[in-house]
# Entry
Amino acid sequence: MQSFNIALIPGDGVGMETVPEAVRVLDRVASLFNQVRFRYQMFDWSCQRYLDTGSMMPADGLARLGDFDAIIMGAVGYPTVPDHISLWGLLLPIRRTFDQYVNLRPVKLLPGVRSPLRDYQTGDIDFMVVRENTEGEYSNMGGRLRAGTSEEVVVQNAVFTRYGTERVMRYAFELARHSRQHLTSATKSNGINYSMPFWDDVFHEIGQEYPGIRQDSNHIDALTAYFITRPDSFDVVVASNLFGDILTDLGAAIQGSVGIAPSANINPEKKYPSMFEPIHGSAPDIAGRGIANPIGQIWAAKMMLDHLGLAPLGNRVLQAVEATLTEGIKTPDLGGTATTQMVTDSIIRGLDVLPYD
Ligand code: IPM
Ligand code: MN
# Structure
């Protein structure tokens, strides 16, 4: 029996509703396979904590997370707390401290879900975005001088290191090598004239090691259009931190609902814990009503299973999600009337009854 210690950080809003659902699914799939057990520790780190105590997490919060095998995060954000405070007080320090330099985001049109792109059916859209997750445009270097005055000066630096760029490129090439041998790089080297030509150079350099892989480089503006006009043409897409962020919200939209899309913040070397969260935010407009879609969180848990070396369990979870959607058991974001818990109940039933493959 293998045992894994999982840190749970539900965070804010719908995160508090979706994280328990992912736990229910994990426990059920673990009991079915009977070879693994999950132990959880829950942390109340959140905007509510910030309002109560002045900080999103305790001073030793990051140190406490370091010993876990993985972290499950819900969502972070409150209307009354500025986003740059809540995010730089919790989510972003976790990504950086634990060197989760790959943010892996599948874009896949699942059965039973209608894409807003009317010409695409299940199976047509199926690709991965590899987002650089520790540097680039999110490097936290800069400042505001003479703040609030008419002479204010603001500098925000984007930092691209050779080390950081090479490793994320290599990860993306490896992923493409195990997939359909096609990697697309998101660039903007026509307008951003230092970092993006450098990004392109590294793409081409690492690409030399992968002669069998088709290599395309698209400017980010054109690439966003291609996500709409030919989403079936992608296999793996590699992008800098900000470009990958924007592309994956678009990716979530074309897979039918932002409520479905998962995200894995991975430290591939497994030196530190990785973190698994849905792409969506805390959704204060629907929080507390029991109608949040749990699938983004549950699919993220599937990615955790894959990362922990439990891919057969992960695949079964996704199959059960697909069966539930095919049956039409959906939350309102997908046009259904089911509650959060009804969707999870159905997924758990699916775990029990689906044939093993
Ligand atoms: C995401 C989110 C975060 C990001 C925000 C909340 C800082 O949009 O995970 O995509 O930009 O990384
Ligand atoms: Mn985002």
Summary: The longest strand covers residues 2-11. The radius of gyration is 20 Å.
